[in-house]
Write a structure and sequence with these properties.
The chain has 165 residues and is of the alpha+beta class. 35% of the residues lie in helices and 34% in strands. The protein contains four helices and nine strands. The strands form two sheets. It has a seven-stranded antiparallel sheet with strand order 3-4-5-9-8-7-6, sandwiched between helices. The protein has a two-stranded antiparallel sheet with strand order 1-2. A hairpin with a 2-residue loop joins strand 7 and strand 8. This is DUF4367 domain-containing protein. It comes from Metabacillus halosaccharovorans.
Length: 165
């Protein structure tokens, strides 16, 4: 019976491991989601702070607003939206700062179109946890995301960042 249990456990582990996407698949899906959102039409603003307006999906809530920052929540996940009014949509300053700070990111990808500079920067924190920053010029949105949520998170993050006016 013990041999059968070990055998069955091995098969279950093999099946579960085979179902989990590889790091390369996660990277590819995440980059594609970010790029698709970057290239898509801007979402219409439905939320306003003292300095800017932006699109906020229905499942997000504003937790706190400061001058250039907005703390957002989606369930128990926090997001920090930062808007540098001195940097336009073509600015590379935020991206270059991240690139200087983290020498071996999990993902570092940039997108350019019509005088807009967008990027996604992902750093592995733990086995299945990542710090994700999505930006457009001087605007960036940061969160922590689990591997299986990366592609969905970056898509909605890019939609929010792109909408800031």
């Amino acid at each position: 019976m013990r041999i059968f249990s070990c055998f069955l456990s091995g098969i279950v582990l093999f099946i579960l491991t085979g179902c989990m996407p590889s790091s390369e698949e996660i990277k590819k899906e995440t980059i594609e989601s970010a790029e698709q959102a970057f290239l898509s039409k801007k979402q219409k603003s439905n939320e306003t702070s003292d300095l800017f307006s932006y699109y906020l999906p229905e499942d997000f809530q504003v937790k706190e607003t400061k001058k250039a920052n907005v703390l957002l929540e989606k369930g128990n996940q926090s997001f920090i939206l930062f808007v540098n009014q001195n940097e336009d949509e073509s600015s590379k300053v935020s991206y270059e700062t991240l690139a200087d700070q983290y020498k071996e990111p999990f993902i570092s990808e940039t997108f350019e179109r019509d005088n807009e500079f967008g990027y996604i920067f992902v750093v592995k924190i733990d086995k299945n946890l990542y710090e994700v920053t999505v930006g457009l010029g001087g605007t960036k949105l940061t969160t922590e995301s689990e591997a299986h949520n990366l592609h969905d998170d970056v898509q909605v993050m890019m939609e929010i960042v792109k909408s800031v006016q």
